[in-house]
Write a structure and sequence with these properties.
75 residues; mainly alpha
Length: 75
């Protein structure tokens, strides 16, 4: 029984070497910033100000990485 596949939804295995390394895809960074801003707005409306602050910081981080790409650097 131990060799059977689990029933239900399971997350796919992560790719090796892609732990917490930042990605520098401009489209992905733009989407990340938009999503984080939308979630910050949602959290603010619900009264979760700590969550809104966390998502705002995430959005600013994505925008900073996008600005680095726009300047031609990837560091």
């Amino acid at each position: 029984m131990a060799n059977t596949a689990p029933v239900g939804r399971i997350a796919p295995a992560s790719k090796p070497g892609t732990g917490n390394t930042p990605h520098f895809d401009p489209v992905a960074l733009h989407g990340e910033a938009i999503n984080a801003c939308a979630m910050a707005t949602y959290y603010t409306r619900k009264g979760n100000h700590a969550g809104a602050a966390r998502k705002s910081a995430q959005a600013l981080s994505a925008l900073r990485r996008l600005a680095v790409l726009a300047q031609g650097g990837a560091a």
